[in-house]
Amino acid sequence: MSGEMAFVSCTVNSVTQEFHVRPEEMLIDVLRDRLALTGTKLSCDLGACGACTVLLDGKPVSSCATFAWQTDGMNVRTVEGLAAANGALDPVQQAFIENSAFQCGYCTPGMIMLARALLDRDPSPDRETIRVWMGANICRCTGYEMIIEAVEKAALIPLETGK
Ligand code: FES
Ligand code: FES
Fold first, then answer.
1. Ligand nearest to C-alpha 41
2. Is the confidence at residue 125, as pLDDT, over 80?
3. What integer pLDDT is reported at residue 2 of this predicted model?
4. Minimum-distance ligand to the CA of 112?
5. Under DSSP, is residue 126 helix (H, G, I), strand (E, B) or coil?
6. Any domain includes 162
7. Ligand 2: lining residues by beta carbon, under 6 Å
8. N or C: which end of the chain has fewer CB within 10 A?
9. Claim to verify: residue 77 and residue 100 sit in the same structural domain
10. Do 13 and 71 lie in a common domain?
11. Mutate to test the pocket of ligand 2, among 43, 96, 106 (most ligand atoms within 8 A of CB)
12. Which ligand 1 atom is nearest residue 45's CA?
């Protein structure tokens, strides 16, 4: 891609967004700085920790390692887009709260998006599957057991329809 601005049309949390981006502009910068979706957190800025995880056409990606222009024509889902239209929390959000699956909370939005992606693929994952899948993201507070338990519990909570 040349140094020219690129036009991007994508859907973010079910709302169409259109903007021009520089070739080097990352998705997390568009989400946080232009769309004020600050639930997505920046930590390593290297694509290594998963704090900035969002779903791109349902697939978890590191938004700090995804160019904004790569989202053209795609659906982006962030933690702000998880609750149902009636305000009901996503089962993963509910289970994280009920299970106190966070300490400082900085990794939590990325963990929740990663878990949502897993349950969308496999609504009833076993513990080992959850452990391996969630191992893609880093919790610096090392609260992994509570996180894994929360994902197990989330799988038992019915998903609200009508999102
Ligand atoms: S902040 Fe994006 S992977 Fe760590
Ligand atoms: S709760 Fe602090 S980094 Fe995970």
1. 1
2. yes
3. 55
4. 2
5. coil
6. no
7. 102-107, 139-141, 143
8. N
9. no
10. yes
11. 106
12. 1
